Amino acid sequence: MTQQPDAPSIRRISSFMYDVEPRFPFKATRNAGHIEFSRNALTLVQQRCSLRNISRAGAIIEIFATIEPPAAITLEIPDAQAGKIGCVRWSGTSSIRIGKKIALRLRFLKLLSEEHVSRILASSTLEGEPRDFAFFV
């Protein structure tokens, strides 16, 4: 099988999932959310979470340490009406235990628009604290 000279090779096609995207700063927030994932490829598990930081490329959430979620989850923030957001756990140190809670660093499968981020920040219950806060950096 020969490659056509006009066809781009796989190596030249850029992808958000695998390429290094520009860094987007985390902004501190406090929103209630839900995560959804499947266990043993049979049951769908839903769990409450607390959204602590968000950027266009990822988020940091806190959950109770009842079940350790897998690498791929879905995040939903009902107050912001942002819909379901596909996420993967950030490579490396993506979780930190804080007492009975686990802080997870997530990477979105698709960049969020500025409109989605501003809608999430507008529905935040965070008061009197600066929003430019980096965690896990």
Tell me about the biggest sheet?
6 strands, antiparallel, barrel
Share of helix among residues? under 10%
**Count of runs of 4 or more consecutive helical residues:** 1
> What is the topology, as strand order, of the major beta sheet?
1-2-3-7-5-4
Instruction: List unreliable stretches of 5+ residues.
Output: 132-137
Overall morphology: globular
Strand content: 35-45%
Mean pLDDT: 79
Alpha carbon gap, first and last residue: 45 Å
Note the run of SSEs as H and E: EEEEEEEH
What is the alpha-carbon Rg in Å?
17 Å
What does this structure look like?
By secondary structure, the protein is mostly beta strands. The protein has 1 helix and 7 strands. It has a 6-stranded antiparallel beta barrel with strand order 1-2-3-7-5-4. It is globular and about 35 Å long.
